[in-house]
């Protein structure tokens, strides 16, 4: 059985955003430790340096998108763009790879991010198994299933007058309770995992944090693609400064307002 496992290759197709790529790479590391050969696909947007991941093979897909498409204002367009532009490159690349594969590198399955749904069609066309990886919580997935029904009955966009009404099919929730985000204390690690990131991790803040009292530091991170104009950025910066509390703000250096 062990010999059979080591002869199988898994193709992982992450959505090219930090919070989706990282768990996919972590999954790849775990599967590799169990004896699987791993191929990671990546687009022009999420270029990965293969030298940083010596245990993985990489397969590039052209996404045909510009930086302007990859923003919080165009997220749906970007996902649609991946579906349109990446399907053929992935299918053609895997077909060529399968023609040359030997028994020690035979592709047995495609594991794809839920947003890279074109991968399912590619897998079906090539006669491969496929598995979806979702990085959302179970509660979030439950609401995803309810959204088509809510759209059908014109409940979305949600009107202010409906906020306290119970959700059809989700009677324990009101419209205002739709769990679309989490805010509170940081969640602890439940399973050890390798440190894998698209970006170079900066640990310099750790010694500074160790000097602060427990629960005394304000942590602010709005994600890697959220767009804020200069006025909003400046207001947030001075609100944090005027709070007179120590804070850790995750922000691109180039977008810091004057005076910071």
UniProtKB/TrEMBL annotation:
**Which family is this sequence assigned to?**
Belongs to the UDP-glycosyltransferase family.
The cross-references to InterPro entries, in alphabetical order and at most eight, read: UDP_glucos_trans
Question: Mind telling me what this protein is named?
Answer: UDP-glycosyltransferases domain-containing protein
What keywords are assigned to this protein?
Transferase
Q: Which GO terms describe its molecular function?
A: quercetin 3-O-glucosyltransferase activity; quercetin 7-O-glucosyltransferase activity
Is Protease included in the keywords of this UniProt record?
no
Specify the domain of life of the species encoding this protein: Eukaryota
């Amino acid at each position: 059985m062990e010999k059979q496992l080591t002869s199988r290759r898994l193709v992982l197709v992450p959505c090219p955003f930090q919070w989706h790529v990282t768990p996919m790479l972590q999954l790849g590391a775990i599967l590799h430790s169990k004896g699987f050969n791993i191929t990671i696909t990546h687009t022009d947007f999420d270029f990965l340096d293969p030298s940083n991941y010596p245990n993985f093979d990489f397969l590039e897909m052209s996404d045909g998108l510009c930086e302007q498409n990859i923003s919080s204002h165009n997220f749906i367009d970007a996902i649609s763009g991946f579906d349109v532009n990446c399907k053929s490159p992935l299918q053609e690349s895997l077909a060529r790879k399968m023609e040359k594969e030997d028994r020690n590198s035979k592709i047995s399955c495609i594991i794809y991010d839920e947003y890279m749904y074109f991968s399912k069609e590619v897998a079906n066309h090539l006669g491969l198994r496929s598995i979806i990886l979702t990085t959302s919580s179970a509660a979030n997935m439950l609401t995803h299933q309810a959204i088509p029904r809510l759209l059908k009955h014109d409940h979305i966009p949600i009107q202010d007058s409906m906020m306290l009404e119970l959700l059809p099919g989700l009677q324990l929730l009101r419209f205002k309770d739709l769990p679309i985000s989490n805010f509170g204390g940081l969640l602890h690690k439940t399973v050890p995992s390798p440190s894998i990131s698209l970006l170079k991790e900066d640990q310099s803040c750790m010694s500074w944090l160790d000097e602060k009292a427990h629960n005394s530091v304000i942590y602010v991170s709005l994600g890697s693609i959220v767009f804020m104009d200069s006025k909003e950025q400046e207001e947030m910066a001075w609100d944090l400064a005027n709070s007179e509390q120590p804070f850790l703000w995750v922000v691109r250096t180039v977008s810091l307002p004057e005076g910071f």
